[in-house]
Structure formats: C-alpha cells, structure tokens
Amino acid sequence: MSAQVHILGPQFSTFVRSVCLACEEKGISYRYGLKPDGKEVEYKGPSHLALHPFGKIPALLHDSQTVFETASICRYLDAAFPGPALQPEDLAERANVDQWSAALSCYVDQALVRNYLLEFAFPKGDDGSIRMDKVAEHQPAAIDMLALLEQQLGDNAFFCGDQYSMADAILTPMIDYLSGLPHASELFANVPNLTAWIRRMQTRESGKKVLISKG
User: pTM to 2 decimals?
Assistant: First the structure.
C-alpha cells in the first residue's frame, strides 16, 4: 500500500517528527525524506523552492496539494483526513491550541532548538567540538523557556488541556531531544509537570514509532 502523504525532510528534524506524530495520531500512512518522487530534492535548490518558497522543511505533499509550515500542515492533515481530532471543537480552546502552535514553532523553537540544541547536534567549534561558551550563553534562556512551558502545561494531561492536540505534536520532539542530553537533569530540575508530560508523550504509540534514532 502506498503512503497517503510524503513529508519532505529528514527524519531527525524536530518539525518533520512533529508532522510524523500528527500522522501517527490520525492513522495517516506517510513517507519522509528528500526524494518524494524518487529524485533527490536539492536543499534550497529550484525543486525545493517550488515546494517551500523559503527553502525550509518540512513541506507536505498530498496528491496535487503542497503545504508548508508545520502548524499549517497539522491543520491541513486534521481537516483532510478522518481520525482523532488534533484541534478542539470549542472556539476558545481551538484558538489556544492555534496560538501556542504558532509560538512553539517560532519563539520556543528559537530558544530551545536553534540557539541551544543545534550546538550539540551540529557543533561548530574547532575540530567539530561543542562550543561550551555558546551553551552557557543560551542555557539560561532555555531554562526560562522550560519554566514558561511548565506554567502553560500546569496539571493538564496535554499541553493545551485534556485533549492531545497539534501543539503536543509540535512540542514533543523538541523536549524529547532536550531530555536526552547528558545534563538533562539540570535543565528539567524545576519543571516536574513537563518532565512527566514528555514521559507520557514518549510512551504513546505515536511517540514510540517516531521518537527513535534512524542512524
């Protein structure tokens, strides 16, 4: 059986994983990678820009439809396919999920992934070493961001309430990677609810399928 959608991007990308989680939660079959039709998409080349005009990942390919930006992709998947809803029916609750999905994709990603995690994933120091001065520079902001996420989560089962939503799918890969760092206990020392939440996300069926290393 062929996959229903193709997710443009590598499996290790946090945002690609977010879309994979959304697909898993809704029961949508999918492929991922940079060869949607068997031909390599050159990063930021013409074929890439034709799918994402800003040369980013992921982009979603579904039949003749292309959608870019993670939150928009999740909303599209939720509307285009049956399965458990990724957004609440209530207007106020839906707006809350929507605003947090946007904030996670922008501000939270910047603080936790772009400024912090990528220094461990793709070190830019001499001989490929981690620039610990950069880690030290950005760690306070990362810890402050985790505290903000802890405040938003509160005692809820899921990030925006009592229902799994696309906000959970967007946030999960970021926190999953952070929780695997050698000094994770230091980062998560004062966010017990967020710590319990990521353990729940990691042990969901979707998490067990997506949050794994592919080498």
Answer: 0.95
